[in-house]
């Protein structure tokens, strides 16, 4: 496998290769992006974050997320993969059982009960895993982890331009932090979001704990408890308490997520160290309200990575469905820990800007070593990419005549765009445009999940969109079972 795309000099002619490879290929941790137009050579992505943009029906899952998952699952079984499967578990229902049969460890986080069919692979994972791990490692560091958690629950407004109302965000965070520390001190196994939400819903019990810790707590917890006791007599106390309750209300008593993480069977660190393929599943209908749930899990995974858990490859299919501002903030730091990569898939750049903000959208693009477009449906995006591609020299000819009916042919050197916005908008549906940092633009054929053996013969039906794509193998991947043989 040549780096990074099987590239050779333009003057060296390559012998055309058939799609079907007689010998299984080991991706070696690289993602298969597609095939070259002329020789059908596989295109392998370099290491690093990436961004894929495609409108509805463009093949984001079938040509993007699933082939990438196959690429990661086919080899390097010690490297964990996390799929943010926020589209009703579309990836999990197709691939979980198949990957388990090929020898990969599979874990499904489905606290909303989207798929009872996959109960055999479901694990109980504590969304407050970061707090539990920090407390067990060194309680003195809880001040940092609890602040990360409370900021995930109560976010700062975009741009950070609302400093005058910081008071009304800081105090609810203080209340949540106090509840976290109270549970951690008494029994860290009880430290789950549902427990904190339940304590917040019982103000009298909360103040009783505050009174106890104000007298008996350690230095940090004692000071926090004394502040809460004093604030409870202030006119703004009901408002602060209500805001804290609202921040964690998806974990409130009587909700589906109230028991999320109770009797956790595994930790975020274990999932990474043991090389699991992890599916974080959620229902798309309420995904806009589950941002806190996803953010807490991402914080826990990041905490484990920062302390040497290993490598995690994240496939964030339809990542704008779950507003993960914390994931965007981690892009600049995660790459340095175990070679962790984040591969984001969305419908459009404007959708990313609407969800996260313009600056955050620019941060995503700047950190993406590879950017991919499965077609264009917006003229603004087509013009932007056309400008990025630049211009090339071209010959212009013109035909003229004079009074004596003599014809003159004029040839001149001019410049034209590599691809005009109109050409980009008319790009064939089986093609993709790839930008690689340090190399440039590549026009290539897509690869579908139905083109990769042996997975295309074993994948389960897509119960969301119906049926299974007919197998049409063009490349064969090695699998853990093959390696063992």
TrEMBL record:
Primary localisation category: membrane
Protein name as it appears in the record: Conjugal transfer coupling protein TraG
Superkingdom per UniProt: Bacteria
UniProt keywords, alphabetically: Cell membrane, Membrane, Transmembrane, Transmembrane helix
InterPro entries the UniProt entry points to: P-loop_NTPase, T4SS-coupling_protein, TraG-D_C
PANTHER family linked: CONJUGATIVE TRANSFER: DNA TRANSPORT
Any one Pfam family match given in the protein's UniProt record, by short name: TraG-D_C
Start and end residues of each TraD/TraG TraM recognition site domain: 312-428
Bilayer topology: Multi-pass membrane protein
Places the protein is found: Cell membrane
Species annotation: Leisingera aquaemixtae
GO cellular component term, pick one: plasma membrane
């Amino acid at each position: 496998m040549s780096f990074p795309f099987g590239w050779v000099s333009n003057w060296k002619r390559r012998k055309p290769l058939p799609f079907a490879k007689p010998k299984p290929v080991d991706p070696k941790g690289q993602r298969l992006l597609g095939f070259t137009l002329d020789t059908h050579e596989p295109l392998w992505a370099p290491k690093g974050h990436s961004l894929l943009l495609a409108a509805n029906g463009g093949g984001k899952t079938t040509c993007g997320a699933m082939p990438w998952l196959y690429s990661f699952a086919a080899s390097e079984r010690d490297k964990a993969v996390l799929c943010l499967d926020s589209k009703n578990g579309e990836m999990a229902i197709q691939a979980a059982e198949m990957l388990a049969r090929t020898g990969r460890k599979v874990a499904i986080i489905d606290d909303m009960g989207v798929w009872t069919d996959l109960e055999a692979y479901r694990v109980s994972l504590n969304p407050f895993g970061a707090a539990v791990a920090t407390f067990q490692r060194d309680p003195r560091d809880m001040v940092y982890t609890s602040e990360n958690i409370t900021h995930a629950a109560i976010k700062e407004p975009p741009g950070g331009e609302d400093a005058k109302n910081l008071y009304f965000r800081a105090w609810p965070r203080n209340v949540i932090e106090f509840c976290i520390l109270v549970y951690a001190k008494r029994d860290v196994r009880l430290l789950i979001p549902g427990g904190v939400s339940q304590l917040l819903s019982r103000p009298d019990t909360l103040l009783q704990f505050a009174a106890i810790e104000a007298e008996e707590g350690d230095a940090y917890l004692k000071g926090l408890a004394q502040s809460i006791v004093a604030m409870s007599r202030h006119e703004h106390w009901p408002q602060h308490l209500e805001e804290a309750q609202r921040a964690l209300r998806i974990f409130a008593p009587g909700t589906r997520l109230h028991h999320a993480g109770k009797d956790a069977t595994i930790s975020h660190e274990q999932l990474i160290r043991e090389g699991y393929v992890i599916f974080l599943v959620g229902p798309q209908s309420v995904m806009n309200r589950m941002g806190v749930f996803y953010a807490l899990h991402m914080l826990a995974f990041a905490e484990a990575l920062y302390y040497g858990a290993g490598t995690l490859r994240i496939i964030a299919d339809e990542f704008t469905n779950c507003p993960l501002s914390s994931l965007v903030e981690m892009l600049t730091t995660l790459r340095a820990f175990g070679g962790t990569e984040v591969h984001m898939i969305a419908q459009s750049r404007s959708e990313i800007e609407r969800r996260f903000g313009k600056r955050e959208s620019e941060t995503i693009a700047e950190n993406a070593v590879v950017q991919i477009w499965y077609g264009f449906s917006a003229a603004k995006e087509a013009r932007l990419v056309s400008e990025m591609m630049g211009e090339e020299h071209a010959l212009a000819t013109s035909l003229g005549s004079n009074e004596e009916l003599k014809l003159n042919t004029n040839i001149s050197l001019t410049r034209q765009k590599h691809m005009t916005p109109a050409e980009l908008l008319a790009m064939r549906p089986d093609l993709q445009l790839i930008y690689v940092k340090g190399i440039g633009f590549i026009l290539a054929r897509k690869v579908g999940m139905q083109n990769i053996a042996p997975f295309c013969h074993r994948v389960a039906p897509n119960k969301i969109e119906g049926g299974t794509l007919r197998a049409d193998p063009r490349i064969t991947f090695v699998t853990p079972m093959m390696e063992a043989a």
